[in-house]
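To: structure subgroup
Subject: Chain for Friday's discussion

All,

I'm putting the inputs and outputs inline so they're searchable in the archive.
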Amino acid sequence: MRTYKLTAYEKTGKMLADETFTAESDEAAKVKGQTLLEEQNLLDQTHRLASPAGKLLLFHV
């Protein structure tokens, strides 16, 4: 399992979400990150999901 980091912000820079979770692959992490964003109603906010290697898997401005 690998550890991934999901963050979401308001346009003002206020942090709305700061979550760390594990997944077996980048693809599984993308699905999990998308689900977390949907559950918290943050899809339209600035967000990013980074892999342990620093690769951006999800990104929205």
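Points worth raising on Friday:
The helical segments are 26-39.
The first strand starts at residue 2 and ends at 9.

D.
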